Structures are given as C-alpha cells and as structure tokens.
Amino acid sequence: MEIIAFEPGMAAAVARCYGELVRPAPYCAPVGGERFADLRRLERGPLREEAVMVAREGGEVVGFVHTAIIPPATEEWHLKGEPGVIRFLSYRPGERPVGKALLEAAEEWLRGRGRTEVVAGSGTYLYPFYHLPFAHISERIAHLPPLLGMAGYAVQDSEVFFSWPDFEVPAVPTPDLEVEIVAERREQIDSFGPGVVVEPRRGEEVVGVCKIVWLGSEAWRPELKGWCFCTYLQVEEPLRGKGLGKHLLARGLAEAREAGMRHAMISTDWDNHRAALCYTNIGYRFLDRTFSFRKELRAGQ
Fold first, then answer.
1. Structural contact between residues 294 and 115, judged by C-beta atoms closer than 8 angstroms
2. How many domains does the chain have?
3. Along the chain (301 residues), what's the average pLDDT of each consecutive run of 10 residues?
4. Which domain holds residue 103?
5. pTM of the model
6. Is 16 in the same domain as 145?
7. Does some domain include residue 56?
8. What's the rounded Cα separation, in Å, for the pair 254 and 189?
9. CATH number of the domain encompassing residue 210
C-alpha cells in the first residue's frame, strides 16, 4: 500500500470511496467524480490550505483523506486557534491499516505546517452534499469513530437528528404572553436558500426566532424536495419554559406545509435534553447521532 497525493485523474475512484463510506448514513447520495475533480466544488467552511491524499493498493484507490488548515475565525461558529482539520476520511470496514495510514499521513502533513491541534469530522467543514446541515460523522458509519478513538481523538461535539416524514402541523396552544408572532418567508436564510423565519416580538424587540429552510431547493439539495429542516430555534431566557418555542416551531411547520413541504427534520446538541424531549413529544423521531473529534498533535507522535 502507498499513500500518494491526489491527482484529478483519481476523482472517479475517490468519489466511489466516498459513496461506499456514506451509504449507511441518512440522506447521503452518491456523487460523481466531477465533484472531486475540482476542490472548489467541495467548499463548505473557510480554509487556508488543504490537501487530499489517497491510499492505493495494487493500483486500486482504496481510501482517501482530505485535510486542511483553518484560517483565523471571523464568525462565532468558526473554529478558534487556526487548527488543522480532517474534512473527510474514507476507508472500507475491515481495512484498518488503510485508515490508520491515511490518518497518520494527514497528521504528519499538519505537523509540517506547524499545527498542534486537529479537528476531525466537524459539520462546519464536511462536504456540502454530505448528510444534513450541522451533521458531523454519522454513528452509522460505524468503523470510523472507533478508529479515531484508538488514534487518540476525543469527542468534541455531538449533534442528534430527528425526522418526521409526512408531518402533521402540531396543535400547540398560543402561549399567554404579550408578544406578536410574525412569520416571513424569505428567498435566502443564512446559506441554505429559501424558507420561513418566525419571530416573537415585543414592540421593536425580537425575543426569539425559528428558522425553517426548504432542503430541496436548487441552492442546497434538490434530491430532498419536499423536506424542510429547522436550522434554528431559540427563545430569550425570561420567556423560556412557557410554551413559546413549541409555538414558534408549530407556526413554522404550518408555513412549511403551505409552501408544499411534506416532511420535516430538526437537530440539537446531544445534551440538550429539553429540546429533544420537546421534539419527540411533538412528533419527531430519532434519526441519527453524529460526532466531531479533537486531538492534540505532538511532535514525533
């Protein structure tokens, strides 16, 4: 086995490796080699420098790793400290030496560029066609998290996903609060495309928000037509626990139904038990758990 630098002629083989890896994960459609032939088509979060290395055995590409360096943070959600990042690592189950060699090659590349920390599988930097918004490495890709764990990586974040095929708009009572609920459909919500924003207001003050995007737009994932995803649900502290968040979500789902959406998804941090209980009580059901990892890089290790 050899680890070599990626060349455009390997794009179809790398795309095959990607498709084989993500097959068990929800909503991960295979992609063609044209997506890998030009690294600009893999852009997600900001990167300062990146490299793709492939594992080849007997002339066959049997895995790849995509690594990069993060530039200084300019947004709250960007990783701090300019760490290295492993955007993707693919190898077949049962071929641990391939995965181990790729991981070590990526770490050596990062050490050579002065990185002392590496993040693996962060949803901010995974490919735009992978899984769902905010998804890290799916636990259904069962052989990848254990490999990272054995290599000294610790779980940094975990996002849990819920889905509701053929959802019904929940009958949620209007909370007895002095707020005005304003729903506005927009052609662009953050970077996801069209959807609806629902805001509770007290005069000019916005005291919460619910954002639901249409996943199947041309700007995001056309193959998910009819699916909507709640990307943000938040209520200001004094108003929490009074049913306002649930009401905002119900209103957003009603707007989504009117816009032609038929299926709904949502996610939350693994330890946000209040949110998870709310979503499952309304009608969502568990879909997947995803993880990102972090490791300190030391010279010679």
1. no
2. 2
3. 95 96 92 91 87 96 96 65 92 96 97 94 92 95 97 96 96 87 94 93 91 88 94 90 92 97 97 94 97 85 50
4. 2-159+290-296
5. 0.91
6. yes
7. yes
8. 18
9. 3.40.630.30
